[in-house]
């Protein structure tokens, strides 16, 4: 007799907590949307949407270039930071500043840097020669 009452009591508690946090309840949607609209949030969209950078939490000046590899016609860049080695290709983004690798060659590497992320047309070229 006690066991069925216990199961019933737990079921009632569970259903109440689920009903209170119903994500499909249309009345709750309006309250969260109005709270979000009261806040002024400025989101700066970067020039490179949806791309993940290599070593995204490390500054560019802390990353060492170990070498350049050529595999048939493709060039790759060997990068070292925090005792981790990573391969990067042309078009990849590197470091916390999100520098884009524009060109990898035998004698130089060219990176693109955006000083103002709101204006994607203004970029600075960074050349590293060796």
Automatic annotation (TrEMBL):
The keyword Signal applies. Keywords: Signal. Residues 1-19 form the signal peptide. It comes from the Bacteria. This is Competence protein ComD. It comes from Aggregatibacter actinomycetemcomitans (Actinobacillus actinomycetemcomitans). The lineage of its organism: Bacteria, Pseudomonadati, Pseudomonadota, Gammaproteobacteria, Pasteurellales.
